């Protein structure tokens, strides 16, 4: 069975975008950039990359401390992205559920895994 892309998203292609991390409906950080792919190769996999600015990184660090974790790899959160692109008239919203940081790619860029997406 060949790998098939089900959905892809790149926040830099949007005319307007707001990306925020939440846990228990509490905003924990603003995210600067988000890219993700949903692939099917037998099972469905959800992978992406987030980029944090200095304020977002500070907010995430505070959340790690608040939650009792050691670092970003110890936390789980949802990402809510609201955006407008050239294809839709109204605002679109996606919620990436149970996001975990898989690995840091550099000081402010992280590979993520998540379990599902809800759309409006």
Overview in brief:
This protein has one helix spanning 54-67, and strands at 4-10, 16-23, 26-30, 33-41, 43-51, 76-84, 92-104, 109-113, 116-119. With 120 residues, the chain is mainly beta.
Structure description:
By secondary structure, the protein is mainly β. The chain has one domain. Helices cover 12% and strands 57% of the residues. The protein is built from 1 helix and 9 strands. Strands 1, 2, 3, 4, 5, 6, 7, 8 and 9 form a 9-stranded antiparallel β-sheet that branches. A hairpin with a 1-residue loop joins strand 4 and strand 5. The protein is globular, with a radius of gyration of 14 Å. The N and C termini lie far apart (30 Å).
Q: Averaging pLDDT over every residue, what do you get?
A: 93
Total helices: the number is: 1
% residues in beta strands = over 45%
Class of secondary structure makeup? mainly beta
Please report the distance between the alpha carbons of the first and last residues. 30 Å
| Spatial shape | globular
Compute the CA-based radius of gyration.
14 Å
Tell me the total number of β-strands. Answer: 9
């Amino acid at each position: 069975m060949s790998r098939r892309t089900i959905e892809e998203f790149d926040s830099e292609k949007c005319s307007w975008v707001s990306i925020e991390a939440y846990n228990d409906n509490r905003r924990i950080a603003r995210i600067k950039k988000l890219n993700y792919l949903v692939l099917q190769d037998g099972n469905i996999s959800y992978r992406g990359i987030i980029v944090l600015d200095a304020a977002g990184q500070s907010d995430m660090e505070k959340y790690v401390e608040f939650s009792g974790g050691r670092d970003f790899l110890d936390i789980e959160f949802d990402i809510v992205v609201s955006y407008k692109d050239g294809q839709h008239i109204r605002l679109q919203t996606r919620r990436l559920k149970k996001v975990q940081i898989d690995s840091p790619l550099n000081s402010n860029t992280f590979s993520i895994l998540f379990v599902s997406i809800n759309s409006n």
